[in-house]
Amino acid sequence: MPQLRTSSTDPHSASQRRRTPLAATSRVTRHAGWSQIPHYSRIFGIETEYGVAVTGANQPIAATQVAMEMFKPVVSRDRSTNTYMDNGSRLYLDVGSHPEYATAESRTVLEAVAQDAAGEQIMARLAQSCQQRLATQYGEHTRVHVFKNNVDSQGHSFGCHENYLLRRQVPLRAIEHELIPFLVTRSLYTGAGRVSGSGKNAYGFELTQRADFLDDAISSATTRVRPMVNTRDEPHADSDLFRRLHVIVGDSNRSQVATWMKLATTHLVLCVIEAACRARALGESSEQDVLRTDIAGDGPFAHLQLANPTEALRQVSQDITGTAPLALAHGGSMSALAIQREYLRVVRDFVRGHSEDTNIAFPQVQRVLEHWQLVLDALASGRWQYLSSWVDWACKLRIIEGLQHRAKQQGHTLNADQLQQLDLDYHDVANGTIFSKLVSSGQMEVLMQDADVQQALHHAPRGTRAQLRAQFLQAVRHTDMRYSVDWTHVQLQEPYSMQAQLLDPFNAQPTAQLSAIMDVLTGKQHG
Amino acid sequence: MPQEQQQRSSAQQDQVVAQQEAQHSQQFQAQTQDFDAVLDDIASVLATNAQEYVSSFVQQGGE
Known about the structure:
The structure holds 2 protein chains of 2 kinds. Chain A has 16 helices and 17 strands. Chain A is an alpha+beta fold. Chain A has 3 domains: 22-39 and 168-405, no CATH class; 44-147, Alpha-Beta Plaits (2-Layer Sandwich), CATH 3.30.70; 463-521. In chain A, strand 4 and strand 5 form a beta hairpin. The radius of gyration of chain A is 24 Å and the shape is globular. Chain B is mostly helical. Residues 1-7 of chain B have low confidence and may be disordered. At the A-B interface, strand 2, helix 10, helix 11, helix 12 and helix 13 of A face helix 1 and helix 2 of B.
């Protein structure tokens, strides 16, 4: 593969210059102040919908009511159930009364994981204060549960969506043929596990929460028909340069290592796909339209294209051995383990060839590759229990097996409700027992210490426009001015009318418009 | 947070993985006892009414 990256290794360096075709250069310079964006740099984001429930109340209380009660402090501060937090993230009440948290734009996987952990903390705090208020009306035993999972007891599903900013020159065809097989088979280590009755084992246990609810590989729908990748293209950035890759096939992970691996491995596979698309584009088209042309052709993972991705996802989800044969589009079949080994092989070679690029050879990349190899080796040798310190499904299944074994020794068995209760408690960030016991006893690896989560609660990820949003919010909330915020704008409404557009997610330098707003907010200048 | 590590050659990496696997195996044996102890605490989850707990969680679909 041609070496097309820049020689600089610092993604934040102002002197960074990518080797860009003429047409693309002019596109970049159209936007004054647009940062020079190195190849393979990426913006990561995770949107998590949570489920809510109440137990112990002396009269019934609906999920809608619980969610509204949880958001009372948010509404009293911002007069809306849709807000942005001081760390640049977005918090809102989504369709179906799901509290939802969308992380601020992150340039590194670790910062996205920290932001996600901050989201759990925000939900837990909202739930605890809600519980105190509800207790006065519904009794002292009222407990508010907030589930970071993807399905309720009636089979309604909700999502954990990953966003990756992707170069525009990657055609959807490449996503469909070369990324989908990866997304289907990464379930081996990203699955959160579910007692569903569908799994081919004693507990009807399957690897993923989502496999039973997905209908298609790629489409523009999200609710009536659910695809693995949604094509709603909202890059919140220059749409000439980037598209948003909106992955909705993933589970909500409690394990921070699983979230980290999910994002890191997907990022590396995307880097390979982007590099291949760029190489093809440079080799086969004029420089004039290189960033705009969707060039069809075979990439490095084209041989892994699946004949029926949704069927394959169900097969992978139902088979904890990873060995079920998945039909390939070009004939024959491969197991999930074999497909993952192939991705790992190509990615490892690619990382080796880009050892100076910090977006690929990021500080923890060797740990990612080692975890990746270990998980495949453990599954291949039938030792899934080895993975229980960071693979959510393996941990959950180990608990279920352990408790069922004990029950049998005592002459009974756990019933379906009890198995489901264990499953749900694992995901409860507010009043759950299982996950916190696993962490406090050292049985579950954590990446973020309390101080890291505190940092992520109050600070936006570095080197991104989220820092600008956070600075604006922290300043404006000390005033009584009216304002509005979204991913790409901040605005003062009253008594001043000023707006700043923040179109470059990689740029943490204030624009002239934003500087003027900040001067007003900090009293340096009066509108 | 994961530690920063240097690039390694393929052979070195295989060796590292083999070593880690052996280490994991030993750790796993040791952890099994600890895991059993955690199960004692986790079993308390089942002391509450499972049927009420499960049926309380009904949402509309999201996304």
